[in-house]
Amino acid sequence: MATARRERYRKQTREEAKAVALAQLAESGTAGISVNAIAKAMGMTGPALYRYFASRDELLTELITDTYRDLAETLARAVADAAPADAADAAPADAAPADAADAAPADRFRAMARALRDWAKRQPDRYLLIYGTPVPGYHAPPETTEIAAGLMRTIVDACSTVGDADGATAHRAATGPGQQPLTDLEAELVRHLEDAGSWVPGEEPGGELKGRALRTWTRLHGVISLDVQGQFTGMGFDPSVLFEAEIDALVRGG
């Protein structure tokens, strides 16, 4: 009983510390995160809080992994909610069966892309924590890169048939890497994801599909990052229009 109480208190203390750290992040960025300041806000001493987090880096790692998990769950939920049946129901009554089927991958991709932007706009500080300027002196442990690789798996799945009307990409993906000549970009991405242990053996998509996913991820993040950091302010247009245009281009394979 006493052990269970201590564990509950430990968990509550760690969660409270992370909540205060997120408030510091919103106010001053990663440079403003201070274990001693967090402890003071919680009515504790710095050394006391170090019993719950061995270092500032450990606290940052918790914030980063929590953020990656939250984003991964958000994107997975958005893709799952964009059920194929929805696309079929929305298709014109006289549409050929293939037309309704082709709409489903695009709907899933659009849902994922919009969920990514919505998530970033709701919590820009957490978005910039994982996709902004790296924290000076901080070295991410393996568990953070593994979670980040999980996000890439989500986008690879979403990209698997989008912009590929004849299904050729899906066929090439199924053949696995090495069956088609890879560009330098694709080969580099294959090496990166293999080193990170991102794929279940036997289920790894082809290098071409990975390369396409990386380019897609880069284009989506390009618009989102500029938007989140206020770079479109004063330009006189709605950034969401640009983002939707980018989604349309990616769906078409452009």
Automatic annotation (TrEMBL):
InterPro entries referenced in this protein's UniProt entry, alphabetically: Homeodomain-like_sf, HTH-type_TetR-like_transc_reg, HTH_TetR, MT1864/Rv1816-like_C, Tet_transcr_reg_TetR-rel_C_sf
Protein name: TetR family transcriptional regulator
Entry-linked SUPFAM superfamilies: Homeodomain-like, Tetracyclin repressor-like, C-terminal domain
Location of the HTH tetR-type domain: 11-71
MF annotations from Gene Ontology: DNA-binding transcription factor activity; transcription cis-regulatory region binding
Top-level taxon: Bacteria
Pfam families: TetR_C_33, TetR_N
Species per Swiss-Prot/TrEMBL record: Streptomyces antioxidans
Keyword presence, Cell membrane: no
